[in-house]
Amino acid sequence: CWISGQALLGSSRIIFSVLIKNLRERDLQTVRQMEDNVVLLDFWPSSFGMRVRIALAEKGIKYESHEENLLDKSPLLVEMNPVHKLIPVLIHNGKPICESLIILQYIDEVWHDKSPLLPSDPCKRSQARFWADYIDKKIYSIGKRVMMGKGEEQEVAKKELIECLKTLEGELGDKLYFGGETIGLVDVALVPFYTWFYSYETCGNFSIEAECPKLVAWAKRCMERETISKSLPDPHKIYSFVLQLKQKLGK
Amino acid sequence: THTHTKTENKVHVIIYTTEVDYSFCRFDCNMGEVKVIGSRKSQFCTRVEWALKLKGVAYEYLEEDLRNKSPLLLKFNPVHKKVPVLLHDGEPIVESLVILEYIDEKWKENPLLPQEPYERAMARCWAKFVDEKCVFGAWDACRAEGEEEKEKAIGSAQESIAFLEKQIEGKIFFGGEQIGFLDLVVGWIPLWLGVMEEAGGMKLLEAEKFPCLHEWAQNFIKIPLIKECLPPREELANYFQASLSYLRSLAANKP
């Protein structure tokens, strides 16, 4: 009798605590939005860091930026991203979130009342996530091979890069943006690589615009948005950075 | 399930059992037509089946021969040409983690991901880590030959597993009291890792080194709906052995 009494109390306590937790969660989310404690651990030429800058700008979130020297990582970076020790890391009220696409989704979920990055329909959301994942798997690593490679290796990488960009161009179709009428997750995931196009083209001696005119038109359209143009460094600065890197690596 | 008892010192003792009741997963008839194009040997496909079963979604499974890919697979995943592919009323969704999130958003019962944004981000981060580091780390350790190379690969793989051990400490499942998104993603460990260890002649998930993860694996594999989707161990072992031999012969024949 005592046990069943306790069980009843226990279950109602659980129901009550779940209710409180749900209410509390919504309140907490509002409070989190009001609290302006957002820090971004970043590195100026990183396309992944640029994604987060754009998302924060789109949502109108004030934040503190800490520039990391990836050759001499700060104790803060190591503490906040002990697994990978990579940027970007978003620190929201002391809690770190790593991996740029995961950070974008986090920003979209917490600051959900302005400029949504993902659509509401589950099918369209999965398509956006697929293409963002595709960009992650391909562009950075192939682009690196274009810039650092020589001879046959470089030619193969150039061909692969154009193929990928053409695939993305196909996905864009006649839309203004990958997100439709406004920018979305895929636009934010891809446009930072536009600042690297000049470096790919110069190192590889080819023109991306000649091969993918629609994609470059899309990128220029994106650059008309202040949230994007102010978040991205000058392509010539990126190229100087690449030259320095190549010199260091003896390429 | 857990029971409370009260000792004389007013300390509540909670006893967890592994008999989690998933009989609430009934099949809903109004969910549209759901098909899975997959290979039962692939842990990435099995996790999709687990998610559908947890949500009580009825589906048709189309087994794919990966050495001879069907026109259906090539049509619905032209970009990667890989399994799994989820077809919902003819619409394809690809990449297992994307599929899991789709399933979670489309069918709201028994949520896989936590509700709170930070916890969701953590689950996603760990899922990415598991798929990128743990799975490939284990496979590298399986494939490695020569004592030095093997030891190095094992060390690296165990470093990744150590992070998982920390995550499961103090919990029955990664999802808390019930299995969730991350449990499905780590779910390859009880069977697939065991088979890889056997094929590769090595031990990664040592019970003394990783007691919590080891216990999690024992509990996870006992859940009926998890168990019923697993391929036969012998079949999987033969497949891994054959893959290893093939890769080694390729390496040996390189000029």
UniProtKB/TrEMBL annotation, chain A:
Biological processes annotated in GO: glutathione metabolic process
Catalysis performed (reactions): RX + glutathione = an S-substituted glutathione + a halide anion + H(+)
Pfam families on file: GST_C (PF00043), GST_N (PF02798)
Domain GST N-terminal stretches: 36-115
EC number: 2.5.1.18
CC annotations in GO: cytoplasm
Residues of the GST C-terminal domain: 121-249
Family according to the record: Belongs to the GST superfamily.
Protein's UniProt name: glutathione transferase
TrEMBL record, chain B:
One Pfam family of this chain: GST_C
Domain GST N-terminal stretches: 32-111
EC number from the UniProt entry: 2.5.1.18
Ranges of residues in domain GST C-terminal: 116-240
Record's catalysed reaction(s): RX + glutathione = an S-substituted glutathione + a halide anion + H(+)
Family: Belongs to the GST superfamily. HSP26 family.
Gene Ontology terms describing biological process: glutathione metabolic process
InterPro entries: Glutathione-S-Trfase_C-like, Glutathione-S-Trfase_C_sf, Glutathione_S-Trfase, Glutathione_S-Trfase_N, GST_C, GST_C_Tau, Omega/Tau-like, Thioredoxin-like_sf
Protein name: Probable glutathione S-transferase
CDD domains registered for this protein in UniProt: GST_C_Tau, GST_N_Tau
Keywords recorded for this protein, A-Z: Transferase
Organism for this UniProt entry: Davidia involucrata
